[in-house]
Amino acid sequence: MRSSPEQLLSGVGTGDEKAFAELYEVLADRVYGLARRVVGDDTDAEDIAQEVFVQLWQTAPRYDPARGSVHSWVMTITHRRAVDKVRAVRTRRSHEAAASSPIDRFEADAWDPVGDHAQIAADAARLRRCILTRLTILQRQAIVLAYYHGHTYAEVARLLDTHPSTIKTRIRDGLRRLRTCLNDNPPAQSRHVVSTRW
């Protein structure tokens, strides 16, 4: 008779490598599948699955059966790691694009202290004016939560008690308004058209 995940994890907590191998066989496909659905990339999903099982090996003695099944516990760990990965990728891409958009340069001020602060300040002022004068309250709140606080559409929808599809529409429309506003009000020293790659 095959051991339950709870019995296997108990064995892992004592350093039983055979129990760990069996637990891996039971949960690996589910861990990878969940990670793949969240991050959308095979390599990243494989990395996350590996990290999850390393964490299980290290933290198995701390598992508390009163807080839920082993399966639920492992899926929670997997989901958290996958979401962290998505946010890390989003932050990296935002930083890489910082030179092409006033919105991104405004964000970049926190991580690039040696940048051109005068330009950043000017872009920030233009951006704030556009946000305050061209966006509805819901558009403003949704964009700030998504782009400056790193929340997903679903998280923004929960925070604003609004349907996710509505949030997506408001963010899309809000960004269009900001792009138009920024293009209509370029920096005084450069009358170029602002990039639309954001």
Q: Helix and strand layout, with pairings?
A:
Layout: H1 5-13, H2 17-39, H3 42-59, H4 70-96, H5 102-108, H6 117-134, H7 137-148, H8 153-159, H9 164-184
Organism: Tenggerimyces flavus
Protein name: Sigma-70 family RNA polymerase sigma factor
Keywords: Sigma factor, Transcription, Transcription regulation
Number of DSSP E strands: 0
* Rg from alpha-carbon coordinates: 23 Å
How far is the first residue's CA from the last residue's CA?
A: 56 Å
**How many domains would you count in the coordinates?**
2
CATH topology (fold) name of the largest domain:
Rna Polymerase Sigma Factor, Chain: A
At the fourth CATH level, what is the homologous superfamily of the largest domain?
RNA polymerase sigma factor, region 2, helix turn helix motif
Number of helices: 9
**H/E topology pattern:** HHHHHHHHH
Mean pLDDT: 77
- Under the CATH scheme, which architecture of the largest domain would be assigned? Orthogonal Bundle
Which geometry do the CA atoms define?
A: elongated
Unreliable stretches (pLDDT < 50, length at least 5) are 104-116, 189-198
Main β sheet profile: none
Helix fraction, binned, reads: over 70%
| Beta strand % | under 5%
Structural class: mainly alpha
At the first level of CATH, what is the class of the largest domain? Mainly Alpha
